[in-house]
Amino acid sequence: MANASADAMRDSNSPPRPAAPGGAVRRTWRLARLWFASDERATAWGLAIAAIGLRLVQVAVQLRLNLWHRDAFDALQRQDQTAFTTQAGWFLLIALASMAVAVAQLWSVQMLALRWRRWLVEHLQARLTEGATLYHLTLLPGAADNPDQRISENTRWATFIAVDLALGLLQAGLMLVSFLGVLWTLSGPLVLGAGVVLPGWLVFAAMLYAAVGLVVTLKLGRPMISINIGRNEAEADHRFALLRLREHAEAVALIGGGRDEARGLSTSFGRVVTVMRDLLRRERHLMWLGSGYGLVAGVLPLLLLGPRYFAGAITLGGLMQAGSAFVEVTRALAWFQENWPRLADWRSHVERVVALEDSLDAAAAVSATRGVTVLEGHGQASEEMLAFDAVSLRTPEGTLLVADATARIRARERVLIQGASGAGKSTLLRAAAGLWPWGTGRILVPPREAMMVLPQRPYLPLGTLRAALAYPAGPSTFATSALAAALERCDLAHLAPRLEETARWERVLSLGEQQRLGFARLLLHRPRWVLMDEATSALDEASQDAMMALFTAELADSALVSVGHRPGLDAWHDRTLVLVRGPEGARLRPCPQGPAASGFQDAPPGLALAGWRSRELALAQPCR
Description:
Strand content: 5-15%
CATH class of the largest domain: Mainly Alpha
Distance between the termini: 30 Å
Radius of gyration: 36 Å
CATH architecture of the largest domain: Up-down Bundle
Strand order of the largest sheet: 8-11-12-6-13-14
Helix content: 55-70%
Shape: elongated
Largest sheet: 6 strands, mixed
Structural class: alpha/beta
């Protein structure tokens, strides 16, 4: 049964598969459809309808401009100054209308893309911060890396380019339908010989011309999709390397690792340069095609219709109108060719957002497919307990860490968990906190609101010291006097005047100060249950004793379950449990060493502590 559960968990942890060809479009549409069905659907539909309507107006303006070409050049051919002056006035009106529509069209595209991006970012952020999703994401093999860049950067281009491309494709279709009739009419029949007449032959010429351009574009540009994906990955890795160096600047400086870091950064950016060179070479190849394609498209209809014009079958205005229509038709047919670099770039951004979405699905599946059952109790506070019932824990890859752990910890009891490094002590606490689903068994826990976890390095959010101290409650939850008293009790009185100061507090404060700040949080929140994971590792023995003494005074009613190796920690606990490694995982065993075995539970804090500790160590037996 355990093996079957582990296999199921491993199946849920399999890395997300890349989207199949066309999958990016389908996934983008799915995200857009979710937005159009969300609470913002009125805004989404309104902006979309406005953007489409303005594209229709723009096509109408282009059709009117095409007619203007005919009338203006016919007036020139007739040397009719009055008619030409009239057409000049019409051109001014058409130009003003075109500019107004263009600006309104740009606004609709910008707002549509911005509002969609805002929804998408908030959607992904909500999924990322839901429960333990982000934590599980960091443990899943093959999960999307750099979720920060995918949310902040890739969503920007995935949405803005998608909106622009979609509306551009719509306009290209409308222009094609609108000008095909004009070009068909102005082409006239083409006699091929033997009585064969080809009507609207210029339309077929435009299609053939566009087809040749598309085939060449696909040949030259298809690799740009994978190249752009590689570019995004290389740039994300280089950005991560820079961020990691900044976060560990002190350690690098102390060890003198600057030169090695410089080599690493140079190698990282070298991969960016290599990919960019390949991408730029492909863009130059497409530039050859694009520049020649547009130039020829403007002249080709004049060359093809020249004989009809010189034969008097078509006027100068008709010739210019046909040339303009040919350009519009070939441009519409060549939409994929003209936008291929942007399509490749957009696809690369979409793939990264899609990969993150798939990884979030996998992380959510891990949270939902729990091998370890965590049951939350809701009885009287005095009846609360933390109980492990045949709990076995595995790594995400399936390696057994803890085997058949069974223990019961009651309210107001203080229990220390010890064991060799890597035995699974912290993992046991994570399972109790609901973060570790890989395994089997049951854990009965107190209500979530009654528990507080104190990790080795407390999390300090961005903002004021007041916000960091009150976390996870809001900054205004506690009075200033209460905050100052908690700081003073934890030997941090010098920080009280800085409560309203904004800083990166994980950099300003030493690790020891950060750990004492964590204890100050306990004084403010007064949880009934405290789970500590090496929370005193950076404190000297006197500071550790001062912090642990809180559990015999202000926090005397709180139960304590702690993991730690520091000497003297057992003096502050009622009993000790030890994880003993074995060939089939570590097993949780009671330890005779500790206050429960030696009578040390009545030791008073203060100067007599050393004597009591010596007595306890003399009476206790080593854990085996």
